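Just scan this pair:

***
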Amino acid sequence: MSTRPQAPQPTAHEPTTRTFGHDWQTDFSRQLVDYREFTLGNPRRDGIPPINQPQFESIDQANDWLSPDDPVLVVSNQQHTTIYPLQILMWHEIVNDWLGELPIAVTFCPLCNIGVVFERQVANQRLTFGVSGLLRKSDLVMWDRQTESLWQQATGLGLVGHFAGSQLQMLPSLLVAWQIACEQAPTSRVLSRQTGFRRSYGQNPYIAYDQQTTPWLLQQRPNPQLPALERVVGLVIGNAALAYPFSILARRLVINDHYLDTSIAIFYQAGMASAVDAATIAQSHATGMGTAWQRQLDGMLLSFESRDHAIYDHQTNSRWDISGRALAGPLQGRQLTPIIHGNHFWFAFAALIGERTQTLRLYSDVDAMDTV
């Protein structure tokens, strides 16, 4: 009796065609991670097509198709602000763009709820990123067209290939509701639905995903300290990954914290629709939104509190909003310095950011930082 041949299994040091296919020109001799950690999410490279020639429109034009609670990723410098609606990003996951004269990649992984913006310049080489079709720990694995290296979207770390071990520079961004973004920067440009692709923008291909208890295509057991798909404001200070659960933020609205030499303020506001709940984003439940800021301003250490559903600092009684702006009071018009952060699903933050740091610290319900 003949025996059916077994498909080759991935190994720690050698990729298999079952997972990677035949057409990669990647230098597979250079790797940081076990090849068995990769999962095939889409059989075709760029099966989820990145946007390489983004088109833009005004806020007035985008108001025709964006609702006040639509989630958007906001990227700014002193001269330019661009708004990237998640209803477009979730169908493309990567936009190769420019922030003024700076080449950037705007990325979003729906399975991890991770939106990250990177510089596309590495070692004097400008890269263009695509969607590899691979996942690692449920997170998007990007590839660059110049060397076909593979990159972890959550961290910007080169995993395999010429750039294995290289680190993309992250840029600050905010994940907030469309209405908040419009108030923050009313002259912003907005990524247009005129992408060159036919997609059901505004609809959600991951229906009820954030209502589940188990992440998709995650090969390891999630960290049990929180429900796997609870959202956290996640950030890195030094060699520590700090996570602030939305379940706590929704009650407190403001958290003042300090780690190493950084004084941290976490702001929370209700609203903003989930991108991965109902069949359409407009019908999805509200998740809330969280942002992270440095509390130092002009040599003054500010501390914040929530009063009457608004944020005030104790030092000047100025009123602030979720985007770190002083709206009223002696500091009106001032802007806090952002701390690079995201609104990650807990499982992804613990698995992907936690593995890159020495300490994973989860903000507890008793105002302490518990090491997990």
